[in-house]
Automatic annotation (TrEMBL):
Protein name: MFS transporter
Membrane topology: Multi-pass membrane protein
Domain Major facilitator superfamily (MFS) profile: 4-383
Native organism: Streptomyces sulfonofaciens
Cell compartment(s), UniProt: Cell membrane
Residues that span the membrane, as ranges: 38-58, 70-93, 99-121, 128-147, 159-179, 200-224, 236-254, 266-283, 289-309, 330-352, 358-377
Record field: compositional bias (Low complexity): 387-401
Gene Ontology terms: cellular component: plasma membrane
InterPro entries with a match to the protein in the record: MFS, MFS_dom, MFS_Efflux_Transporters, MFS_trans_sf
SUPFAM superfamilies for this protein: MFS general substrate transporter (SSF103473)
Entry annotated with the keyword Cell membrane: yes
Length: 407
């Protein structure tokens, strides 16, 4: 694999760390600014909303410059946002810093996916994408627990200074290692927007929202589920999340490897198995060992869908993939927000802390249904294209046969 993928993975590691580390530091941030925990929770919600808005906006603004320069600009924006958060004198400034950093998130992964795919042979594209996303998954295993520990012992501002430093390393790596890849000639914002009329692109994004929603329906409420239902101590939740992160790493690498061989079968298996595991998790949550196994499997199966889904979007929007790729990253965050809301609804309805698992199973099963529909429509279109290609040959052969018969 090219060294440029390492630079992209470092950037992804920093972005993944800053996205999730705030969850473990909310009490410290809330106490420092004198706000409630629910108010501090806007730092999580605001970031997710910033990703959804920033992904298409920043990608559209970057259509006139090279992808390498856009990646460097995005990492600079990421560094600025985290420095603003670290130096914030008031909660509002902290929230603004989070939103500035979030604007880099979706566009970085979207454009980075296109760059990663362009760096390798066609049969290795999904593997290259998964290598970049490895930085995001490793962040949940190493960056988030380490950043939380540092923030709790040395102050949360220290964590954000260190994340900003990671961004500087990622920026330097991109500047040094990522080659200047010429943009395809004739591709403009209008071309990029036109791909959203492609049914297959929309179906792939629907799979992203529903499939990833299935994962976070369960994981968003993992703490009360594990402490109130499985019987784990509060201190064990961190290590259960590390287990989830390890599953993410393994699933991401496996998904990238097999998606290059058989993309749609990989989606069938991962989404189908994810729906089953989430349904089983409802009952397994009452046993500590079974619950831990399910947590790892949910992480693995959920992230096994990331490289094939991202590659599916790139394949179906060939010629103008950048905006579609970035919007698909926003779709992951939309799935997070949707599933967290639905999970909260079923808990509020008195169905218990395991009820979000059923919500996740339904969402993942719905994503599988979209995958089957997408493949069926693709087969139909191929048959029609084949019939249309054969028709002119048949039409011209008939007069030739008639002429031959006359002579």
């Amino acid at each position: 694999m090219p060294l440029a993928l390492l630079a992209l993975a470092i950037g992804a590691f920093g972005i993944g760390t800053t996205e999730f580390v705030i969850m473990g530091l909310l009490p410290q941030v809330a106490g420092d600014f004198g706000v409630s925990i629910p108010t501090a929770g806007f730092l999580v919600t605001g970031y997710a909303l910033g990703v959804m808005v920033g992904a298409p906006l920043m990608t559209a603004l970057g259509t006139r410059i090279s992808r390498k320069r856009m990646l460097m600009l995005l990492m600079g924006l990421f560094v600025a946002g985290n420095l603003l958060s670290a130096l914030a004198p008031a909660f509002g400034v902290m929230a603004a810093g989070r939103i500035v950093a979030s604007f880099a998130h979706g566009a970085f992964f979207g454009i980075g996916s296109v760059v990663a795919a362009d760096l390798v042979a066609p049969q290795k594209k999904a593997g290259a994408i998964s290598m970049m996303f490895t930085g995001l998954t490793v962040a949940n295993v190493v960056g988030v627990p380490l950043g939380t520990s540092i923030g709790q012992s040395l102050g949360w501002r220290t964590t954000f200074f260190l994340v900003a430093a990671l961004g500087v390393v990622g920026l330097a790596g991109i500047a040094r290692l990522v080659p200047e890849i010429p943009r395809p000639q004739g591709v403009r914002l209008g071309n990029e927007l036109a791909v959203f009329r492609n049914t297959q692109v929309l179906l792939a994004m629907g799979m992203t929202v529903l499939g990833f929603g299935g994962v976070f329906a369960a994981i968003t409420y993992i703490a009360p589920m594990m402490t109130e239902v499985a019987g784990y101590a509060d201190s064990s939740v961190t290590w259960l999340l590390v287990l989830f992160g390890l599953g993410m790493v393994g699933g991401n690498l496996i998904g990238g490897r097999f998606a290059d061989r058989a993309l749609m079968p990989m989606l069938y298996v991962s989404l189908g198995a994810l729906a089953v595991v989430l349904a089983v998790f409802t009952f397994a949550a009452h046993d500590k060992i079974a619950a831990a196994v399910c947590i790892a499997l949910v992480g693995a199966l959920g992230f096994a869908t990331v490289p094939p889904l991202q590659k599916r979007v790139l394949d179906q929007s060939a010629g103008a993939p950048t905006l579609a790729s970035a919007v698909n990253i926003g779709a992951f965050n939309l799935g997070n927000a949707l599933s967290a809301w639905l999970g909260g609804l079923v808990i509020s309805a008195g169905l218990g802390y395991t009820a979000p698992n059923w919500v996740g199973a339904v969402l993942a099963g719905s994503a599988l249904g979209l995958a089957v529909l997408s493949a069926a429509l693709e087969r139909r279109d191929l048959r029609r294209a084949g019939a249309a290609a054969a028709a002119p040959a048949d039409a011209t052969s008939a007069p030739d046969r008639a002429t031959a018969e006359r002579y």
